[in-house]
Each structure stands twice: as C-alpha cells, then as structure tokens.
Here is the input.
Amino acid sequence: MGLLSLLFSNPGLFAILAILLLYSIIFHEIAHGLVAYLFGDDTAMRAGRITLNPVSHLDPIGTLMLFFVGFGWAVPVPVDYDRLSNFRFGLFSVALAGCVANILIAIIALILMQFDFLALNPVFSAILPIVAKINIILGAFNLIPIPPLDGSKVLMSFLPEEARANLAGLEPYGFYILAFLLFTGLLNPVINFMQQLIYGMIAILFSFFR
Here is the structure.
C-alpha cells in the first residue's frame, strides 16, 4: 500500500505528509515554468500555471502513483521550446529545473533533520526523512533519459538536431516503455544509480558546511 497505509494508521500524519508531497510535485512543475519564463517563454505564465493552486497542477493518476509507489507527476506545464533564448542552454535549464527543485526540497528536509528540536519531535522525525527520500526519488526518476521524462530533454540539449528529433519521436510510446521497464524491474538499477548520484552530491555539499 506504500504511503497510503498511513491514512489508516495515522490520518493526521498522512494529511501533513500528503500536502508536503503534493507540493513537491507542484514545485517541480512551477520550476519548469519559471525557468522557461526567464529564457523568454511565457506560455506557462499565460496559462496560469505559475501558481500554488493545486487544482491547476494535479494529475489524478500521477498523484495516486506518488502514494502507491513513491514517485508521481503533476500535469506538465506547457513550454514552447522554440521561444527559448539560447535554445540548447535554455532547453537544458528548463528540463533540469524540476529535478533541481526536488533536490533542493530534499536538502531542506535533510538540513531540518539536523536540528534537535525538530529531530526529536515525533511528527517531524517521521515526516522529514520521507519528504527527503521521496523528493530524491522524484529527482532521480525524472532524470532518466526516456521521453517524456526531463532527463530526455536534458540529453536532447546535447544532441544534434536529427538525433534530438529521433529521441523526441519516442515520446508517444514513452509511457508504455516506462511501464514495461518498471514492471519488469529493468529500470530499478537506473533509478538506484540516479538516487546514489544525488545522495553523493548532497553529501559533498554537506561536507563543505561541517
């Protein structure tokens, strides 16, 4: 049952955790839209997607997946990549923005865990590790270079035009490819590698402040 088991064992804790995790995927999408705006594309802004109103973002299936399997998604913000200034760097930055948002949320949660008055509080001691872990999973999963995941667009920013078009052409089949790889467990090593990469980056960052 994943995180949904909390709904029955501790409804109050589940409610707090649900809000934090739902906003984790909302911030992921807002980050895409904000960075696109900085690079000259106001499509998400005009569509009303740069907002904290969850109604504008939440995807029912993606939300259920978040609580059942530990990663999910919101409705993608619209981005007109042709309008981005400095196309390659803009594509790279917009694609990576959502993952960076999740990693920053994880870092904040990990920093808060260092404070005794929070770490010793039963609510925060239960919630903060889950928030950190789920956001690292979200960041890791989205870095996989299979369309429509963000990692595919990060990869596209380095590819020549023809190869970029070929990779983009996989997007209509991306969901089925991902479902197959997840169902067979073939994607697990990739997700684990991405998680370890992110944990390593965070560990290096923390080492500078010790």
Remarks:
- The two ends are 38 Å apart (CA to CA).
- The chain has a mean pLDDT of 91.
